[in-house]
C-alpha cells in the first residue's frame, strides 16, 4: 500500500503533466490496467485500453482550452481528491465546470476514478 506521501508525490506529478499538456503521459504512468472510471455523465468504463481510446477521442474533440488547472488536492489514506477548473470548447460547444476527481490508489496506480461536478 502506498503512503499518503507517496500518493501526494504521484498526484503532484500527474497534475504537472496535465499542466504541460501531457494528460495521456499521466494516464500511461499512473493508471492501473484494471482502472474503473466513472465520468460526469455517470457512465462507468473499465480497463486501461478502452479508457485510453476514449481519452484520445475526448482530446481530439477539443478545439480550444482557456483553462484546465488543478485548484486543490487532498490525500487521505489510499484516496486522492483533485479539484479541476475546466474552461474549453469542444466540437459540441463550450464546457465550463469545476469538478472533483476522486481516485483510489492500488499498487502505485489509480484503480478507480470518479468525477463529480
Mean pLDDT: 97
Strand order of the largest sheet: 2-1-6-5-4-3
Structural class: alpha+beta
**CA gyration radius, whole angstroms:** 14 Å
Shape: globular
How many strand segments?
6
Name the quaternary structure. single chain
Poorly predicted runs: none
- In whole angstroms, how far apart are the ends? 29 Å
- DSSP strand content: over 45%
Separate helix tally: 3
Largest sheet geometry: 6 strands, mixed
Chart the SSEs and their pairings.
Layout: H1 4-19, H2 23-30, E1 31-38, E2 44-46, H3 48-60, E3 62-76, E4 79-90, E5 93-106, E6 109-116
Helix pairs in contact: 1-2
Description:
This protein has 117 residues and is of the alpha+beta class. The protein contains 3 helices and 6 strands, in the order ααββαββββ. A 6-stranded mixed beta sheet has the order 2-1-6-5-4-3. The longest helix is centred in the first third of the chain and has 16 residues. The radius of gyration is 14 Å and the shape is globular. It starts with a helix and ends with a strand. 12% of the residues are buried.
Amino acid at each position: 500500500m502506498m503512503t499518503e506521501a507517496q500518493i501526494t508525490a504521484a498526484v503532484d506529478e500527474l497534475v504537472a503533466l496535465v499542466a504541460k499538456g501531457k494528460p495521456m503521459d499521466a494516464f500511461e504512468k499512473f493508471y492501473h490496467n484494471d482502472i474503473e472510471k466513472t465520468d460526469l455523465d455517470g457512465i462507468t468504463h473499465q480497463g486501461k485500453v478502452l479508457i485510453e481510446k476514449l481519452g484520445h477521442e475526448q482530446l481530439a474533440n477539443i478545439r480550444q482550452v482557456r483553462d484546465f488547472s488543478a485548484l486543490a488536492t487532498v490525500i487521505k489514506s489510499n484516496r486522492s481528491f483533485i479539484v479541476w477548473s475546466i474552461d474549453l470548447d469542444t466540437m459540441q460547444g463550450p464546457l465550463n465546470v469545476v469538478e472533483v476527481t476522486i481516485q483510489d490508489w492500488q499498487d502505485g496506480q489509480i484503480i478507480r476514478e470518479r468525477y463529480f461536478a
